[in-house]
Write a structure and sequence with these properties.
The structure holds 2 protein chains of 2 kinds. By secondary structure, chain A is of the alpha/beta class. Chain A is built from 8 helices and 13 strands. Chain A folds into 2 domains: about 120 residues, Response regulator (Rossmann fold); about 90 residues, Arc Repressor Mutant, subunit A, CATH 1.10.10. A 5-stranded parallel β-sheet of chain A has the order 2-1-3-6-7, with helices on both faces. A 4-stranded antiparallel β-sheet of chain A has the order 8-9-10-11, with helices on one face. A two-stranded antiparallel sheet of chain A has the order 4-5. The chains are: A alpha/beta, B alpha+beta. The interface between A and B is medium-sized, with 27 and 32 residues. Chain A: This is Response regulator transcription factor.
Chain lengths: ~220, ~450
C-alpha cells in the first residue's frame, strides 16, 4: 500500500513515514502543497495523509483541487484544529477521514487502511482469493486456514494483486506499490518476489500475462 | 441636557421665541411710527379744515364755539379736540370734551404738552386775518392704546399657537431622529460576534459619519479577532504538531524491534523536546510582550557586554559557527531597556545561528548611525517575497530551520517596537546571508 504523507514538521513526518512503514505501508513524504501537487501528478497513491497547515498554503486547497479534477485518492486530514466546525469543513471539502493532533499511531494506521480499503471499493478488512487470506492490519496471511509466512515485500506484492482479482498489474505498477521515491528499485525484484510467492501459495494462483504483467486467478 | 431631542427642542423653541419677539418688537415700533404719522397728518388736516372754515365762511368764532352734544369720550370716539384762541389770549371756542386750559403755547406747528395731567399732541395754525390760533390736539394715551391693542391682537394668537408649535417641533424631532434610533436598535440587538457593517449608504448625511465610524470600528474589531483566531490556530498547530511527533516517535520506539530505528526515534524525541521547550519559552516571551505593561525603564547598555551575555548563554549547535564582535561596536553605549533589547538581540542571534551553514560566520556590527546593532549571518537569507511576512507569528518560510518555531523574528520585532526602535531585515549585498538591524535613537 503506497501512501503520500504531506507534513512539514520534520519529526512528525519522519514518525509518520517510519510508523506507517512498520504497518507495512510504503510512504512517500512531501512538505509543501506544491510538492504534494507534483507527487500527485506523477504517481498514484492508495491513500494520502494531509496536514492542513502547510508552509505554502492550506491542505484544504490541495484537497479541493484534487476533488474538482476528479481525483478519488482517499484522504485523511491531520490537523491541530479539531473543533467540530473544522472537522465538518474538512469532511465537506472531500476528505474521507479526519484525525486531530496528537494522535495514536495505531489508530492512524487503522484509519489509513480503512480509507484505502474503501477507496478500492472493499468493505471487508481481509483480502481473500484462492484460499489465501491477507490481513493488512496484522500483516498476517493464511493459506487454507494454515499460517503463511510472507516477507514485507511479498505481502505488499500479493495484496496489490489481490485487491483486484482478475485485473492485470504491470511490473512498473507493482514496483510503484513496493518502493517509495527514496528507495532504489532492484531490477527483476518483482520477478523474484513472484517466484517466492508461487512457491508458497501454489504455481497457478498468480498468472503471468505475457507482455502485460501478472494477475490473481479470478476463480477460487 | 443629555437628550439630543430635548436639546434640539429647547434650541428650536428658544430660537422661534426670539424670532417671534423680535418680529413683535419690530411691528410695534413700525406701527407706532406709522400711526404717529397718520394721526399727525389728521391733526394737521383737521386744524387747516377748521382754519379754512373760519376764514371762508367768515363765521364768527362764537358760532364755531357752539357746544356740540356733550357726550363723554368713550373708546376711540372724540379723539380730536379743538380750541380757538384769539391772539390776545381769549378762548374763542372749543369743541366738546376739550380741556379748558390752553392746549399749547406754541404759536404754530406741532407741540407736545401736558394738559390737566394728560399728555397731548397739538397742532396749531395761526390765522393772521382773523387774529386767532386754531389748535387741534389729541391725547397721546389714546394713541398708545391703539398701538397696544394692535400688539395684543398679534400676541393673543401667538400664545395660543405656541404650545401647538412646540408639540409640532417635538413630533418632528422624533421623526427626524428616527434613523439614529433605528441604527441604535440595529447595533443594540445584534449578536456579540456579528461584525457586519451597518447600512451607511442609506443613512442621512448627518448620521453617515457615525455609521461610517461604527463600520470602521467593526472592521478593526473583526480584523483583530481574525488575527487572534489565526494566532490561536497557529499556536494550536505549532504546539500540537511537535506533541504528535513526540507521541508518534515514542510509539515507534516501543513498537519496533530494530535497534537502529528505536535509536533514531529516541534521538528525535530528544530533539522534539528541545524544540518544544524553546517554543514554550518563546510563547511566554511573546505573552509578556503582549501584556504591555508600563514603559520599561531605559538604562545605558554596553553593546560589548550584551554580546558577551547573549553569546555565552546561547544554546550550542551541532555545526561549528564562528561568532565575532566588530571592535567598533564593543564600546557603543545604547540607551534602552535591558530586558527588551536582550530579548530582541537573543532572538536575532539564535535565528542567525540556526540558519548558519557549517563553518558560517556571525558578526555583530554597529549600524551606520552608530546607535544600533546589526547581526550578520552567512545563511540563505530571506526570499524577498517573504521579507514582509517573516515577522508574523508562526511564519516559517522556505528557508526554515529544523528547530525553528516561526516566533524568533516576531519576538525581535515586537520587542523592538516596545523599545521604540525599528527592526530592519535585509539580505546581504556582499554574499548570501541576512543582516538584521535594531536601530535605536541616540
Amino acid at each position: 500500500m503506497r501512501i503520500l504523507v504531506v507534513e512539514d514538521d520534520p519529526i512528525l513526518a519522519d514518525g509518520l513515514a517510519v510508523g506507517l512503514g512498520l504497518a507495512g505501508m510504503t510512504v512517500d513524504r512531501v512538505e509543501t502543497c506544491a510538492d504534494a501537487r507534483a507527487a500527485l501528478a506523477t504517481s498514484t497513491f492508495d491513500a494520502m495523509v494531509l496536514d492542513l497547515m502547510l508552509p505554502d498554503g492550506s491542505g484544504l486547497d490541495v484537497l479541493g483541487e484534487m476533488r474538482r479534477r476528479g481525483d478519488r485518492t482517499p484522504i485523511l486530514l491531520l490537523t491541530a484544529m479539531d473543533d467540530t466546525p473544522d472537522r465538518v469543513r474538512g469532511l465537506d471539502s472531500g476528505a474521507d477521514d479526519y484525525l486531530g493532533k496528537p494522535f495514536d499511531l495505531d489508530e492512524l494506521s487503522a484509519r489509513v487502511r480503512a480509507i484505502a480499503r474503501r477507496g478500492n471499493g472493499r468493505a471487508a478488512p481481509c483480502l481473500t482469493a484462492c484460499g489465501v487470506v491477507l490481513d493488512p492490519a496484522s500483516l498476517s496471511a493464511t493459506l487454507n486456514g494454515a499460517p503463511l509466512s510472507l516477507s514485507r515485500r511479498e505481502f505488499a506484492v500479493l495484496s496489490a494483486l489481490m485487491e483486484r482479482p482478475g485485473i492485470v498489474l504491470s511490473k512498473p505498477e507493482i514496483e510503484d506499490r513496493l518502493y517509495g521515491w527514496q528507495e532504489e528499485i532492484e531490477s527483476n525484484a518483482v520477478e523474484v518476489h513472484i517466484h517466492h510467492l508461487r512457491a508458497k501459495i501454489g504455481r497457478d494462483t498468480i498468472e503471468t500475462v505475457r507482455g502485460l504483467g501478472y494477475r490473481i486467478r479470478a476463480t477460487s | 441636557m443629555n437628550s439630543l431631542r430635548g436639546r434640539l427642542f429647547a434650541i428650536l423653541l428658544t430660537a422661534t421665541g426670539v424670532i417671534w419677539l423680535s418680529a413683535v418688537a419690530w411691528i410695534y415700533s413700525n406701527t407706532h411710527r406709522e400711526l404717529e404719522h397718520v394721526l399727525d397728518t389728521r391733526l394737521q388736516e383737521a386744524a387747516r379744515m377748521v382754519n379754512s372754515l373760519v376764514g371762508s365762511a367768515n363765521m364768527t368764532v362764537a358760532m364755531a364755539a357752539l357746544p356740540g352734544p356733550q357726550a363723554e369720550a368713550l373708546g376711540y370716539e372724540r379723539q380730536l379736540s379743538c380750541q380757538i384762541w384769539s391772539f390776545d389770549g381769549r378762548l374763542m371756542a372749543r369743541s366738546s370734551g376739550t380741556p379748558h386750559g390752553r392746549l399749547t403755547e406754541v404759536p404754530s406747528g406741532f407741540s407736545d404738552r401736558i394738559v390737566d395731567g394728560e399728555p397731548w399732541r397739538v397742532y396749531t395754525v395761526a390765522n393772521e386775518t382773523a387774529g386767532i390760533h386754531i389748535m387741534v390736539g389729541d391725547r397721546l394715551g389714546l394713541r398708545d392704546r391703539l398701538v397696544s391693542e394692535l400688539i395684543k391682537g398679534l400676541l393673543a394668537p401667538a400664545l395660543l399657537i405656541a404650545p401647538l408649535l412646540g408639540l409640532l417641533i417635538w413630533i418632528s424631532l422624533g421623526r427626524g431622529l428616527r434613523p439614529l434610533r433605528a441604527m441604535a436598535h440595529d447595533v443594540g440587538t445584534r449578536d456579540a460576534d456579528d461584525m457586519s457593517p451597518v447600512d451607511a449608504a442609506h443613512a442621512p448625511a448627518e448620521v453617515k459619519p457615525l455609521a461610517q465610524a461604527l463600520n470602521g470600528l467593526f472592521a478593526k474589531v473583526e480584523t483583530a479577532r481574525r488575527h487572534e483566531r489565526e494566532v490561536t490556530a497557529f499556536a494550536a498547530h505549532e504546539l500540537r504538531t511537535p506533541l504528535a511527533g513526540l507521541k508518534t516517535q515514542a510509539q515507534i520506539a516501543m513498537a519496533t524491534e530494530d535497534m537502529a530505528v528505536r535509536q533514531g526515534a529516541l534521538q528525535r524525541i530528544v530533539l522534539s523536546v528541545d524544540r518544544t521547550t524553546r517554543l514554550v519559552r518563546q510563547l511566554l516571551a511573546l505573552a509578556k510582550l503582549d501584556a504591555n505593561g508600563a514603559a520599561p525603564a531605559r538604562e545605558a547598555l554596553q553593546a560589548g557586554a550584551l554580546f558577551d551575555e547573549i553569546t555565552d548563554s546561547a544554546p550550542g549547535t551541532a555545526q561549528q559557527v564562528s561568532i565575532s564582535l566588530d571592535p567598533a561596536l564593543r564600546s557603543v553605549t545604547i540607551q534602552a531597556s535591558r530586558e527588551l533589547l536582550t530579548l530582541a538581540l537573543r532572538n536575532l542571534h539564535e535565528n542567525a545561528v540556526q540558519h548558519s551553514p557549517a563553518g558560517g560566520r556571525i558578526v555583530w556590527r554597529a549600524t551606520a548611525s552608530g546607535h544600533g546593532i546589526a547581526i550578520e549571518d552567512e545563511g540563505p537569507g530571506i526570499p524577498e517575497d517573504e521579507m514582509a511576512l517573516v515577522t508574523q507569528r508562526f511564519f516559517r518560510g522556505r528557508h526554515k530551520s529544523a528547530i525553528g518555531t516561526g516566533l524568533g523574528l516576531a519576538i525581535a520585532d515586537a520587542a523592538a517596537r516596545r523599545l521604540g526602535a525599528a527592526l530592519r531585515l535585509s539580505n546581504r549585498a556582499d554574499r548570501s546571508g541576512l543582516r538584521a538591524e535594531i536601530e535605536i535613537g541616540p
